[in-house]
Please model this.
Amino acid sequence: MIDVDIDERLGAFRLEVAFKADAPIVGLFGRSGAGKTSVVNAIAGIGRPSRGSIRINGDVLFDAAAGIDLPPERRRVGYVFQDALLFPHLDVRSNLLYGQRLRAPGERFIEESRVVALLGLEPFLHRRPRTLSGGEKQRVAIGRALLAQPRILLMDEPLAALDVPRKVEILDYIERLRDELAIPIVYVSHSVTEIARLADTVVVLSDGRCVAVGDVDEVMGRTDLRPATGRYEAGSLVEARVAAHDREYELTTLVFDGGALHVPQLDAAVGERVRARIRARDVALATERPAAISVLNVLEGRVASVRDAPGPVADVQVAVGAATINARVTRRSLRELRIQRGQPIFALVKAVSFDERSLGYTRGGSA
Amino acid sequence: MQGPTPEEIEILALSLRVAAVSVACSLPFAVFVAFGLARASFPGKTLVDAIVHLPLVLPPVVVGFALLVLFGRHGPLGSLLDRWFGIVIAFRWTGAAVASALMGFPLMVRAIRLSIEVIDRRLEIAARTLGGSPTWVFASVTLPLALPGIVTGTLLSFARGLGEFGATITFVSNIPGETQTLPLAIYTYTQVPGGDAQALRLSVIAVVVSTAALAASEWLTRRATRAHGDDRR
Model:
């Protein structure tokens, strides 16, 4: 359980954030300048809130009223920075062991061999940080933070400096450590794809305030948060299970409460949980079941709500079983098809609109 | 030209000893002052900065004279040292080391300060979150990263000490075997008729030693920089 309730003044910027979250991965989401980094800095003990308290699993790290302010080295908070910040004068192995050596043997519950295997660090243990690629550096930084035996891992935009293939790679590693090490993670990002793939609980920040806290599906689906989340990134999340693989066409079938989804082949076993994100602009609507169409996913549902504000686009929420799928269509289509709340509707999603970053595994997750 | 005479070796050994002791004793203070100037903000920082740099701009004779007034046997600090610890530095080789340390101090502080200022402070923050106390982080991150500056500063100050003349001759005079370092010996020979040949021989030794110190500085700096950089080993 992460319990943060702080006020902090940083120049002209005021941070007034309060939230409680209890999940394997808590996403801290907001646009740049929303105060995300200030919040994780406060948890890590960098910076000094003027009021409030910070508790992790009941342990008080900071309490202004009680005069408690643990220094960073006594908080046992692992911090993964945007740009790795490896020690340039030490080789990879010495970087990894920097924190572990400072912990008493009795406090060590994560072993070096385990971290090295989990993050695939064996090939460059004896190299200098400067010779590593961005993705490799970030993996070492994650390993270094883990070996300091933290009670929580803070990751501040760990993918921001990486190219797309490296992002996918690190996302896989983060999911592996969530599933295998059971350390709560606070994941900071301004990217909906990353948050939607990884986070279970989302905290949305805007202008130094917390504007929403809740389950990732619910929060990311809310249209009233668009000013904080960004309009172009609207979408919805579907928690599904792998049902079958089609070897011939290299497709994977996912089943969820409202039906089946065909997506490009996934490296996951049948029965595994998968979270799929569907961008609203990738969803088309039809009032009757289309025939002779290339779109593989035709989901039958009911219009749950229509948001018909001035402008070229309109947002439609479609209830498909227990899931909700957001669709973004033109206001003209809305009129011409006479789409109204409550009516039956077909949501069409192209299989190719799913990419690696929009599909995440939730092995043993809390979904 | 024949090899160095025993007398010349004695002069050289004394010079090296004076310079080495002066550097060894001033290094901890230089690191402390450089760190304070690079990182801390305190009232009077500009004044401290100016005082540290004073030996660089003052005539060395003035520094030597100030030392003589303060640390002379009857000076306020000199008499205290003598009474409490029985230490006398005026007109001793230790006094020459003090003079040379003072003259080299600004060079040392500048080099170390520059290298501390370019360290990414977030590396230290990262080290703190990994469990390092401020002292440990200083020893395990800040100092190693400042090593190129420490090496450069030390050798600059060492070379400056080998060449120190004005402050030394004013403070500890020119006593053969006790305070007569290379520059002082060269000066002495130029003042006696027919001493030019001797002065020339000593000058050659001075050139060789100074060049060696510079080369060593280059080599050490490159090694220290490389340790931070790529993977050649």
